[in-house]
Specification:
It contains 3 helices and 6 strands, in the order αββααββββ. The protein is of the alpha+beta class and 121 residues long. The radius of gyration is 21 Å and the shape is globular.
């Protein structure tokens, strides 16, 4: 009976640790703007930025009018990743109850290598 109880406690601890790891949140690094919708919204916007058809202009204005300012250091849960046709990395994520998308640099900035230092004499 003690072994069963110990096994159950161990399984519960492992499940709790796994759940905490799965729901670990990223945080917003820069004050950035995100579009409402999933990552396909950002892909469409990026790929149709220069399209001047009436339908595209209406959709672009709608997306920009409903954009969301991302507060720095706010926790977000990344749910999707994609790449635009231009090569820009995009992320779909939730902030509160809103499903948003933005360039990946707003949340996961790409590290820039520092200039190589002169070797010490």
């Amino acid at each position: 009976m003690m072994r069963i109880c110990a096994a159950i406690v161990t399984l519960m601890a492992l499940a709790g640790a796994l759940a905490a790891r799965c729901t670990a949140a990223d945080s917003i690094v820069y004050s950035f703007v995100a579009l409402r919708g999933d990552v396909s919204t950002c892909q469409w916007f990026d790929e149709n930025l220069n399209d001047r058809s009436e339908h595209s202009l209406v959709r672009q204005v709608d997306a920009l009018y409903n954009r969301v300012a991302l507060p720095p250091n706010a926790a977000v849960n990344v749910t999707q990743t994609a790449t635009a046709s231009t090569g820009t990395a995009l992320l779909g994520f939730t902030l509160g109850n809103a499903q948003l998308c933005a360039a990946a640099g707003a949340i996961r900035p790409t590290p820039v290598p520092s200039a190589s230092a002169e070797p010490a004499p």
